[in-house]
Design brief:
The complex is a heterodimer of chains A (320) and B (290). With 320 residues, chain A is mostly helical. Chain A has helices at 5-19, 23-46, 55-73, 77-101, 106-126, 128-131, 156-178, 181-191, 193-198, 203-229, 234-237, 239-253, 260-279, 286-301, 305-314. The radius of gyration of chain A is 19 Å and the shape is globular. The chains are: A mainly alpha (320), B mainly alpha (290).
């Protein structure tokens, strides 16, 4: 039964728009799927104790490189997105290589990567002649609205399937990592770097691989967000707030579980929406207020997150 | 390329020194907390933001004298520091350092949103305009000079406290060896509380100085926060002398970099310098090898 369960869920999700396609709920689901993918990308490495606060930077690179290439050179996102992903991965390696060589781990790693997301934010703001600075940036709309070449679609259903596909791919990648040799190597590294190295694990190579993978995935998420919303601003797709948001959602859902970051995304986005609809502009700030309390409480009492704790309770599974 | 006697360069250098004093004060509190409790308060700049709001309300709304408002704000932020320690850090003392960092990240969001909800997102300022001093065609603002002076006094006071009093000695001893000191009859819990309070008071002092130069808004912490952490890491987390030197290096880069390009580029240069330095001296300027 449990073997067919994911397939069943998948079929239901793919079929959903045929039965139900009210624009607003569909929009929320698309946003949830895109952010679930981003949070999953963060957890791919965060799960091994490589807590990065630099992912806001990778998200920004993904969104801005794609949009800038399209607006300035007419380069299709089909090429722009891979370029952005490679750029983010290169940036990740540039940071992760010395971090690994010089043993910058734990909270030092978090602080160094935090500098990276601060740099990306400042560069976007400083180059306001090109990027629009803190006012944000809009990819040029193609005449007619729909174009496969421009990766612009007006129908919510189309976006739903794209987001679903990307999210599914994200889960697949993470699942593959979790059952590969890389997982054992990285778990060994997070326990004891010296011992892992002595046992023949190439610490730097393993760390670089996972960081580059995670960064490239995050950049893809940023590009998806940009193409769907058709508007990006440095505050939403770069900087420390964006990085912390990824950490919140992933920790609340549970970083050691495949579906954890997705559950985190559902909870955080639904919370923000409920507050926004229920209280309107009076709700400004309340969503972050609740996130903040949740994060503190979860770190203290439920460091495995909601899904992780439920799994441990009902299935007797010990994870992480 | 400007020559050394370029008046603008000199002015930027002087402003850099003045900025360095305030950054040094910011780094001092954070370094103390890290050195003694071994915890990074990611929300440190948000404590400063709270102090700035306290100053705004006490001084501009309730019309208290500046000094009284300053003392009350410092006490208030000191109390916040103690609360932060008791509620968030104490339960996590045994957990992985990264968990403590993330939990204070939650507090960061909490404080930011509390400010948004309680005070609104508009910019507020005290409306104090101190004169600008003109020395040999150079303009130096009196506020910056004052901030620099008070920050320096604060740092000297801190140094005297740590080196001359019993509690100060105990604090330094804990920073050196967490395991042995309880055996020597030092109450670790009490020292942690005192340290958190001092860290908070230093943040409060910084907020009294910064509120003279900057408008308050809920996201002002993001302006000071990253730079303060980078200074601490660059100086060697926990090393107060290192943090002091690093803050002047950073301030000069920002100030002189901002002279030739935009201010944002000054920050970009400073951040890039930080990352490069992490690779040259990962343990920080004055840090010990772990």
């Amino acid at each position: 039964m449990s073997r067919f369960f994911p397939w069943l869920i998948g079929a239901v999700l793919i079929g959903l728009p045929f039965v139900y396609n009210s624009p607003y709920p569909l929009h929320i689901i698309i946003v949830v799927l895109i952010w679930s993918f981003v949070y999953t990308s963060w957890a791919v490495m965060g799960r091994f104790g490589l807590v990065s606060l630099g992912h806001g930077g990778f998200l920004g690179v993904g969104a801005y490189v794609t949009a800038l290439l399209w607006n300035n050179f007419g380069l299709s996102p089909w090429i722009g997105i891979p370029v952005a992903m490679v750029a983010a991965a290169a940036l990740a390696v540039l940071i992760a290589y010395p971090c690994s060589r010089f043993r910058i781990t734990g909270h030092y790693f978090a602080l160094v990567t935090m500098a990276l997301s601060a740099i990306v934010l400042q560069v976007i703001t400083a180059t306001r002649d090109v990027t629009g600075g803190s006012l944000g940036y809009t990819p040029q709309r193609i005449a007619g609205g729909d174009s496969l070449f421009a990766f612009q679609f007006t129908a919510k259903e189309t976006w739903y399937w794209i987001a679903l596909l990307v999210w599914g791919l994200g889960l697949l990648v993470r699942w593959q990592v979790e059952r590969s040799m890389m997982r054992y190597a990285l778990e060994a590294i997070s326990e004891d770097e010296d011992a892992a190295s002595a046992a023949g694990v190439h610490v730097t190579v393993e760390k670089l691989k996972i960081t580059a993978l995670s960064a490239a995935m995050t950049a893809l998420g940023g590009a998806m967000y940009c193409q769907y919303q058709m508007f990006i601003s440095p505050d939403t797709v770069s900087g420390i707030s964006a990085s912390l948001q990824m950490v919140f959602a992933s920790v609340v859902g549970g970083i050691y579980v495949l579906i954890g970051p997705t559950v985190g995304a559902i909870i955080t986005i639904m919370l923000a929406e409920v507050l926004r609809i229920g209280f309107g502009t009076a709700a400004v700030g309340w969503d972050n207020f609740v996130y903040g309390i949740l994060l503190v409480l979860f770190i203290i009492y439920l460091p495995q997150g909601i899904v992780g704790s439920l799994q441990a309770k009902f299935m007797g599974k010990k994870i992480g | 390329m400007a020559n050394v006697f370029d008046i603008y360069l000199l002015e930027a250098l002087i402003n850099g020194v003045l900025l360095g004093g305030v950054l040094g004060l910011l780094a001092l509190g954070l370094n103390l907390i890290f050195g003694v409790i071994d915890v990074v308060w990611i929300c440190y700049a948000e404590l400063i933001m709270m102090g700035m709001y306290a100053m705004y309300y006490l001084y501009s709304v309730y019309h208290l004298p500046f000094i009284v408002a300053a003392i009350l704000s410092m006490a208030g932020v000191g109390l916040l520091g103690v609360l932060l320690h008791v509620i968030v850090i104490q339960p996590l003392l045994g957990a992985a350092p990264i968990n403590q960092l993330l939990a204070t990240g939650g507090v960061l969001a909490l404080l930011q949103s509390t400010a948004t909800i309680a005070f609104g997102i508009d910019f507020k300022n005290l409306g104090i305009r101190l004169p600008v001093i003109e020395v040999a065609d150079m303009f130096v603002s009196y506020t910056r000079l004052l901030a620099f002076g008070v920050a320096l006094l604060g740092m000297i006071g801190m140094y005297l406290f740590l080196s001359r009093t019993y509690t100060g000695t105990a604090i330094r001893a804990i920073a050196q060896d967490r395991q042995i000191m309880p055996l020597m009859g030092v109450d670790t819990k009490r020292i942690y509380l005192i340290t958190s309070a001092i860290g908070g008071v230093l943040a409060g002092l910084a907020s009294c100085l910064l509120v003279l130069q900057y408008d308050v808004h809920p996201f002002i912490g993001l302006t000071f926060g990253p730079i303060t952490f980078m200074i601490c890491v660059l100086g060697g987390l926990g090393s107060m002398v290192g943090g002091f030197i690093a803050s002047f290096v950073f301030a000069e880069i920002i100030s002189v970099g901002g002279l030739y390009l935009d201010l944002e580029w000054g920050y970009v240069f400073a951040f890039v310098f930080f990352i490069v330095m992490m690779f040259v001296r990962p343990q920080g300027l004055m840090g010990r090898k772990s």
